[in-house]
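Hi support team,

I'm opening this ticket because the web form for multi-chain structure prediction keeps timing out on my end. I have pasted the exact lines I submitted so you can reproduce it. The total is 656 residues across two entries, so I didn't expect it to be a heavy job. Is there a limit I'm missing, or should I split the entries? Thanks in advance, R.K.
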Amino acid sequence: MDNRILELLEQQTEGYLSGEVLSKDLHISRTAVWKHIKKLEAQGYKFEASRRLGYRLISKPSKLSIQELMEKLSGTSLIKAIKLHESVDSTQNIAQRLAEDDAPQGTLVIAEQQTSGRGRMGRKWVSPSGKGIWMSLVLRPRLPLQFASQLTLLTAVALCRALKTVAAPLDIGIKWPNDLLIGGKKISGILLESTAEDERLKYVIAGIGISVNLEADDYPEELLPIATSLRMELGRPLDRADIIAAFIIEFEQLYNVYQNEGFGLIRTVWEALSVSLFKPTQLKTPTGIVVGTPIGLDESGALLVKLEDGSLLPIFSAEMSPLSDNRS
Amino acid sequence: MDNRILELLEQQTEGYLSGEVLSKDLHISRTAVWKHIKKLEAQGYKFEASRRLGYRLISKPSKLSIQELMEKLSGTSLIKAIKLHESVDSTQNIAQRLAEDDAPQGTLVIAEQQTSGRGRMGRKWVSPSGKGIWMSLVLRPRLPLQFASQLTLLTAVALCRALKTVAAPLDIGIKWPNDLLIGGKKISGILLESTAEDERLKYVIAGIGISVNLEADDYPEELLPIATSLRMELGRPLDRADIIAAFIIEFEQLYNVYQNEGFGLIRTVWEALSVSLFKPTQLKTPTGIVVGTPIGLDESGALLVKLEDGSLLPIFSAEMSPLSDNRS
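Hello R.K., no limit was hit. The queue was backed up. Here is the completed structure from your submission:
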């Protein structure tokens, strides 16, 4: 039914179609017409609605296409399959099921919309239709389990480098371990879900959410002080396929370097891109609160925090907040 | 139908019941009777079969009971729920589904039989009905991902200590990382499946298979040179509930020590119980073959291998085989 309403409105791009005409043509009530319009709006279609004249289609959401993505990724060999969905609960769930069914490394799941996008620590992730990049990449690194957290840091480096290029001249930095920030506000989130047998990684699902073309009214009020989008910062929309391709290209390069030469280079670049270092910080770890100044990463990928007595403490897992700020 | 055959044979413990009588009484063919007898044998029932006299029930399999287990575990607080199954594909699969549905730490899944028991690296695990302990324990350690492999070593220490007590005076040792051996033959396997979000463990499923009362004809021919059971080594059957309880009690103690005081003690005890140290060894790692002599564990739980040039190499993941032996 949504498609039939769209068809009728597309034939009528200059003028309006009244709710009455739509309801007659489609044999549904005017309330039903209104409900379908709302549903289309949620998918990114924009309408002008006039009580007197009816509805007019103003703009359609830009859609990702597998063909376009494949063309932009033709120089890479990492991506073996792209699964593009209109709406899913969470691309992580889809990718996880595929990985359990032996999907190869390089299977990429993308959705225009997530209805239950997942962030770190069970938090929700705002992922409205057509506005952002919500994707999950299946990886099968031949790595011991210990090193999975290095992949988290690598993914942040790849995404930061990709966004700095496509969204230049925005100043984008990494908050430990893997959030990307512009002026202290979050523009993307990374969630790596790892599954291991004993000391051997079976697979890793790298989930990436990027707030590309979201506008202020896409966010719940309470998130506006801490979240932003590339569009809001740049003042213009960006092409999502370009960003996906830029990320995959960066990721593939770093992933190859990492697998061949280890964590050294990734660590150095992470430190260079980080906005979490050399500032007094409070870290809520599973075993208690640590106050100190992060000065870098150690060889394993742990955050090295300088304590008041001058000693260095490696932190493997924590929530970080500025010392002067109690906002979680 | 299996139950009705059992009933009839149980009423007749002194004498035999002929296939003809059984087939008449149950209104099934004599071939069908024979098939049901085979099925019951697979479940651990033993029959004497005489062409002239028919069948006689000799012994029933010993069954685990939740009540008996709970009584034996009354001194511990780790176990929150026991799920006892007659036959499952794999207790790991069941426990994993429970963990995804938020089952608490201490959920213990036990099966009399596994039809697709899983071992390390996707290998099958022989788990006939009533003869062994096939179980999976849900853990939710508040640990960074990096430390999951320490839990693998801890589980091996707990199981080795438990078996040395209940199956004294057998000489049981740990082969790196977590197989238990008697005289070079495997008597148990441990498989820890970990799931993590970024650097944080979500849950760990500790799968434990113990060949308690298996007899030689329970194994495929080709496994006999490398596998054995406690019964085959001791010359008498053991009570499975006692072994489960002994393991849980050991595990709980070590797990508490580990969470409060770290890996130090576990490492020392693992080294003391290991049969993998101080012997020239070949290690097949994901990045190539390493030849050297393991001398202990490092702080992270990696195996420290002394190379020919005297340097120490930490090994995180490998398959180990004696240098003079090409058996994989």
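A quick check on our side: Chain B has three domains: 2-59, 66-273, 281-322. Let us know if the file doesn't open in your viewer.
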